[in-house]
Amino acid sequence: MREAAKRAQHRSSALLWAGMIAAVLIAVGVVMAPGLRNAGDETVSPVDLGAAEVSPAPVLPQVEQLRVHVIRKYPHATDAFTQGLIWHGGVMYESTGQYGKSELRRVRLKDGNVLARRKLDPGFFGEGLALVDQRLIQLTWRSGIAFVSDVVTLQERETLRYAGEGWGLCYDGTSLVMSNGSSTLDFRDPGSMALIRKLNVTKDGLPVDELNELECVGREIYANVWRHDEIVRIDRATGRVTGSIDASGLLTRIESRRADVLNGIAYKPDTKTFLLTGKLWPQVFEVDFEPR
User: Fold this and answer.
1) No. of H helices and E strands in the chain?
2) Torsion angle of the four alpha carbons 130, 153, 105, 176, in this order, in degrees rounded to the nearest 10
3) What is the pLDDT of residues 216-246, one digit of tens each?
4) Order of strands across the sheet with 184-188?
């Protein structure tokens, strides 16, 4: 009987241990089951992104690097604080600045002789100039007034008003394009100066500040950068600078001492060349642009 009791007790202990082991295994299985673990205990395996899955950084088109090539030089009045320049009908039209000295001029290029002029009231500081049909539109700096003059007589026809400062001006065949010393160009109605749209100008993704005198050529806008010997070529649709033109070294060291900054650019469609000058410069340069 004692042996039978021992065997029964042994079987009971074995069953008890088996039950306990089974319970532990079930509990572990429940804990490890998907969706039943504590979110804080989960670990995330690193994901190996293949080269095809990584988005490359956008590559900006390169800005073409150009320099001026001087074809010929012409005399220029050293009292002309040049703010706007136009080539039309075989002569040059020029807007000059400074209070008490601002004028609208028609100039013979070959000898720099002023053929006609109209002085602005001393309270106006002349700025950019554009030709629309037979109308010359001349900006003023801080007066918010544009003078509209006859291209033949230079006589004033009317005035137009606009908000903000006036710097450079050109006509793209549809709109007036106007700078104000910032990196933004305003497109305005040529009949009323009403604002149509704005264009932010960037170079390598960064804004180009202090845009000044402008010249519209086809789908591009050329702009002097104030206080720099640089002209930027701008895509009219996107505002992206597509070309940077080095215009340094046009004046001698002695000439530079008596002159102010580069400012004044006009396109000659008959020769596909440009006229460049500056404030109080002694010369106008006929140039084209070539790779650096």
Assistant:
1) 2, 22
2) -10
3) 999 999 999 999 999 999 999 999 999 999 9
4) 169-171, 176-179, 184-188, 195-200
